[in-house]
Amino acid sequence: MPVRRDRLRRAGESAFGALLLTRMILMTLLALLMVTGGAWSSWDTARDALRPPQGAAGPLTLAACDRERCTGTFGPSGETVALYQRIGREPGETLEVALRPGTAEVVRTGAPGVLYACLPLAGSLLLAGIVIGGGLRMYRTAWATAGAGIALLATAFALW
């Protein structure tokens, strides 16, 4: 004959199960929010690097560089534009860039430009890997997510 548990114990077990389910749902939503935010942040720059507006792509010859940006002459129009970046460049270099509509800013085009634009996505993948591993206890998925973020970071800096 099975032993019957009292109501208080059954209610406690049900509440604990509900807490576990709530934790899983919240951690999943947090990880999805992180990756979505990183992709959204990356898309603003990646859009111009992937498909430059008609007549807004060309070479940029760097004239001066500081810690925040490099300025130079944009080939097709001859105007002075700024390339905002954190990695050091040397004056005299020529880069393929695209002019952002309505601004005097340019972004790199091609694979280096797209990968550099995707750095916020890479950071969000790294953070989501921590949430997936620590909060959801899905260790293989966490390693795969963090590995994708690390690979994206390494490739972006290798091609930049």
Give the SSE map.
Blueprint: H1 7-50, E1 57-65, E2 69-74, E3 80-84, E4 94-99, E5 105-108, H2 110-117, H3 119-135, H4 139-159
Parallel strand pairs: 3-5
Antiparallel strand pairs: 1-2, 1-4, 2-3, 4-5
Helix pairs in contact: 1-2, 1-3, 2-4, 3-4
Describe the structure.
Helices cover 56% and strands 19% of the residues. It has 160 residues and is α+β, with helices and mostly antiparallel strands. It has 2 domains: 18-49 and 118-159; 53-108, OB fold (Dihydrolipoamide Acetyltransferase, E2P), CATH 2.40.50.140. A 5-stranded mixed beta barrel has the order 1-2-3-5-4. It is elongated, with a radius of gyration of 24 Å. The mean pLDDT is 88.
How are strands sequenced across the largest beta sheet?
1-2-3-5-4
Over the alpha carbons, how many angstroms does the gyration radius reach?
24 Å
Q: Please state roughly what percent of the residues sit in beta strands, choosing from under 5%, 5-15%, 15-25%, 25-35%, 35-45% or over 45%.
A: 15-25%
Shape: elongated
Structural class determined from secondary elements: alpha+beta
- Structure summary, number of beta strands: 5
Count of discrete alpha- or pi-helical segments spanning 4 or more residues: 4
Count of discrete domains: 2
Secondary-structure element sequence?
HEEEEEHHH
Portion in helices:
55-70%
Please give the alpha-carbon distance between the first and last residues.
72 Å
**Unreliable runs:** none
Mean pLDDT: 88
Main sheet overview: 5 strands, mixed, barrel
